[in-house]
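Bench notes, afternoon.
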Amino acid sequence: MSSSDQERIYVGNNANVSASLAIIADLQCRASTVGVDSALEPAFEAARRARESSSLYARAFEWGKVGLIATRVISALTTIHALSQPGS
């Protein structure tokens, strides 16, 4: 894999994480929740490790962790938001 391909993967992973964080922020505004930052702390740690690693495979593994954690937080926030709606 060329360094150009690796850079595109890296940029794509960063974009996915940024999009996930934007969704989380939006959901957080819609449903009053606490503890989201602490739930995301492992994702932030994995993102730091991914950015610091020189190994493509280690970075991909860490970005995968970030994505999984973000997905779980989005799912939880979506459920909380749905349950907080009148008539739920």
